[in-house]
User: Fold protein acetyllysine N-acetyltransferase from Phocaeicola vulgatus.
Amino acid sequence: NAGHRAIAGLEKCFDVEVITQNVDNLHERAGSSRVTHLHGELTKLRSSRDPELIVPIDGWEQRLDATAPDGSLLRPHIVFFGEAVPMFERAAEIAGTAD
Assistant:
């Protein structure tokens, strides 16, 4: 939408890093290149055993029994209710250095 495109346009003149709670990748689709996703991204999957093992989704359909390179089941790369927000410290660091 126009708001996402406007934020992406700011990168042409300013040092911009977006912090978002959204998991929809609309900032990237609008052109933003530096985006921190607090709650993950629906465009990626991750190992159910190792949250650092992240893989891109291959198309829009994913088999329910798809496995990660470590052999565990893949799950959406999003934060479920009650889980810790892994990018919180990174977001606080970015916000702490903002003008």
